[in-house]
Write a structure and sequence with these properties.
By secondary structure, the protein is an all-alpha fold. 75% of the residues lie in helices and 3% in strands. Helix 3 packs antiparallel against helix 8 and helix 5 (138-164) packs antiparallel against helix 7. It is globular. The N and C termini lie far apart (67 Å).
């Protein structure tokens, strides 16, 4: 490959969700609203948990971290798309593209691992309630959250280093609204076998494995709930898991469809639709899913909002 061909990859063109200019205003308004709701909702969750001593428990500690990761994941992708629509400039430089891809994978991996850790937390709370405080100690919670940050940083950096060795020549139009790994690999004019193998390995580690662990945890949880003698007790136990199950369905239903489905089945339209679900819709809905079904969190949010209103008036 000619060395000068590398200069053709100085930038990529993000084609966005639609190539019809008349839809730009609708898309801009829709995603701006979604992003603002995501920012406000997740920040409220974080502030409510950090300001209420009653919520300083492992479950809410994990939820606050999930809200932070969701906020960062949405911030990595949506603002860039909004800027591109507003300025009518679809270009993104090669370094910025790799940077966006790094943070997308970093926070995406964190999201997946945190959701599985929260399933383990629910498993301990329901199946071993008497030992919950001992098992979910502050030390273990620190490892369960800190470990994924280090692991996610390593995996994301490896992705970027493997991408940096590829050559992109000629065609530089990316049929997506952010720099995702799979569409970029299709643009490379060099062999991407190593990259694809690493993608499958990572998908197995951060998508398939956590998903299997979640299924195993909830299998044990359901068995334990069915053994509860009273109907009220069963309903209360299941209500603590229903919010998390909704998040699991939203997140893994879309990521598995993108990263573990055959390339012949995953079209550009399906990839973009799935990406919207786990980069925009899921981070926006998570605060509502958790707060609307959680009495303690709703109470804390009301106190936080009332306090802000009182202090401003």
């Amino acid at each position: 490959m000619e060395p000068q061909n590398r200069t053709s990859a100085s930038e990529f063109l993000l084609l966005g969700l639609s190539e019809k200019p008349e839809q730009d205003t609708l898309l801009f308004s829709l995603f701006l609203c979604m992003y603002l709701i995501t920012v406000v909702g997740n920040l409220l969750i974080i502030l409510a948990i950090s300001s209420d001593l009653r919520l300083h428990t492992p479950m809410y500690f994990l939820l606050a971290n999930l809200s932070l990761v969701d906020l960062c994941l949405a911030t990595d992708t949506i603002p860039q798309m909004l800027v591109n629509i507003q300025t009518k400039n679809k270009a993104i430089s090669y370094p910025c593209c790799l940077t966006q891809m790094y943070f997308f994978h970093f926070f995406g991996i964190m999201d997946s691992v945190l959701i599985s850790v929260m399933a383990y937390d629910r498993f301990v709370a329901i199946c071993h309630p008497l030992h919950y405080t001992t098992i979910m100690s502050p030390r273990l919670c620190g490892w369960l959250v800190g470990g994924p940050w280090v692991f996610s940083c390593f995996v994301s950096l490896t992705h970027i280093l493997l991408m940096a060795r590829l050559v992109f020549c000629g065609h530089n139009e990316l049929p997506h609204y952010f720099c995702d790994l799979t569409p970029l690999l299709r643009l490379s004019c060099t062999r991407t076998t190593v990259n694809k193998i690493f993608v499958l390995l990572v998908a197995g580690m951060v998508i398939a494995t956590p998903f299997v662990c979640i299924l195993a945890s909830y299998t044990r949880i359901i068995v334990a709930i069915l053994k509860v003698p009273s109907a009220g007790g069963r309903k209360k136990a299941f209500s603590t898991c229903s919010s998390h199950l909704s998040v699991v369905t939203l997140f893994y239903g879309t990521t598995i469809g993108v990263y573990l489905c055959p390339s012949s089945v995953c079209t550009a339209v399906k990839e973009k639709a799935s990406a919207v679900m786990y980069t925009a819709v899921t981070p926006m809905l998570n605060p509502f899913i958790y707060s609307l079904r959680n009495r303690d969190l709703k109470g804390s949010l009301k106190k936080l909002v009332n306090r802000k209103i009182t202090s401003s008036s």
